[in-house]
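Aim 2 progress update. The chain analyzed this quarter is reproduced below.
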Amino acid sequence: MRVLGVDPGLTRCGVGVVEGVAGRPLTMLGVGVVRTSADAELGQRLVAVEQGIEAWLDEHRPECVAVERVFSQHNVRTVMGTAQASAVAMLCAARRGIPVALHTPSEVKAAVTGSGRADKAQVGAMVTRLLRLDAPPRPADAADALALAICHIWRAPAQNRLQQAVARHTAKPTYPVTAPITSKGRTA
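Predicted structure tokens:
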């Protein structure tokens, strides 16, 4: 499975591509950051994020895009920019028919480090170890994007099985069509 991880942001949008399957060594195919100027108009910044993500999609042809789920922060301006960049990433993938998965920061940290409260340094160190890199990707947004891709590769098989089980359990049973029974117990 080849996954493009996206750590959304307007100033720095981390992107990283990881290939592999759960239980086997993973391979990093690329990592970087799509940058926009804080001085630019919002619309121009969103177009720049779109163009950057489109270039990554063109180059790496992922089977899935894993995006960090936006969570509540105290700084409304920051969360709005993150949400907007997240929406751009999802739109780019959807336009191409590529499935999108959302993972919370704590899910990603738990998957990669074993603790949902790990700090950025711990995430970077584990990404470096898991992908057999010489040094942690910089900036942290790039390492976070790789962590998202790793998280999705590891969690997707279990999530798919759970979704299939829920679908089977909640599916309406089909009953054979029978003739209505009259008040005297006979079929009509």
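Residues 112 and 151 are 6 Å apart (CA to CA). The two ends are 57 Å apart (CA to CA). These observations will guide the mutagenesis experiments scheduled for the next reporting period.
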